[in-house]
Design a protein that fits this description.
Strand content: 15-25%
CATH class: Alpha Beta
Helix content: 40-55%
Radius of gyration: 15 Å
CATH topology: Leucine Aminopeptidase, subunit E, domain 1
Distance between the termini: 16 Å
Structural class: alpha/beta
Largest sheet: 6 strands, mixed
Strand order of the largest sheet: 1-6-5-2-4-3
Number of helices: 5
Number of strands: 6
Bound molecules: adenosine-5'-diphosphate
Shape: globular
CATH architecture: 3-Layer(aba) Sandwich
């Protein structure tokens, strides 16, 4: 954890599939049927129960649109739940990407609130295969988490989980810049 974090907002470098939190957030795609990046890692580590629930959600509501979120079990993960949200594909920044990315964070946090989940861990939604610039994405993630925590009891803790050293530095700067 870095000095710029608060008890309710934390930064951890590591693999999100290893986090012992109430829910981890998946950077899913709208099919909910799995993919590469963090999505693939979560399904591999969590086992088939997660995909089975995703299929049931698909049958009910036809997948998940960009900016929205759905919740499933965590299967074999240390986390009891996975919140699947679909980030925007980066297309230059003038196609509603910032608002859609903010919706990913807000809708995921709303599911955590509705399910009274104490702690939620987020990867950098959209910042891998979908190409969202990491610095701009981190600023949105930090802003939305701070705004949510300031006015809601649940979740009690939000954890940003970064994989690479570069992402760690970017989040440290984003967290320091808005104290
Ligand atoms: P998207 O399709 O939304 O861009 P990706 O899965 O490609 O999602 O990447 C999202 C972010 O998650 C990237 O910054 C990537 O480095 C990071 N990431 C990939 N695997 C893991 C993991 N196991 N734990 C934490 N972060 C991860």
């Amino acid at each position: 954890m870095s000095a710029s974090t608060s008890p309710r907002l934390q930064l951890v470098q590591g693999d999100i599939t290893r986090q012992s939190v109430a829910a981890i957030v998946n950077a899913a795609n709208s099919s909910l049927l799995g993919g590469g990046g963090v999505d693939g890692a979560i399904h591999r580590a969590g086992g088939p129960a997660i995909l089975e629930e995703c299929r049931q959600i698909r049958a009910r509501q036809g997948g998940c649109q960009t900016g929205e979120a759905v919740i499933t079990t965590g299967g074999r993960l240390p986390a009891a739940h996975v919140i699947h949200t679909v980030g925007p594909v980066w297309n230059g920044g003038h196609k509603g990407e910032p608002e859609l990315l903010a919706s990913c964070y807000r809708n995921s946090l709303r599911l955590a609130q509705e399910n009274q989940l104490a702690s939620v861990a987020f990867p950098g939604i959209g910042t891998g295969i979908y190409g969202y610039p990491k610095k701009e994405a981190a600023a949105i993630a930090v802003r939305e988490a701070r705004q949510w925590l300031a006015s809601h009891e649940w979740p009690q803790t939000v954890v940003f989980v970064v994989f690479e050293d570069e992402s760690q530095r970017i989040y440290e700067a984003a967290l320091a810049g808005h104290e």
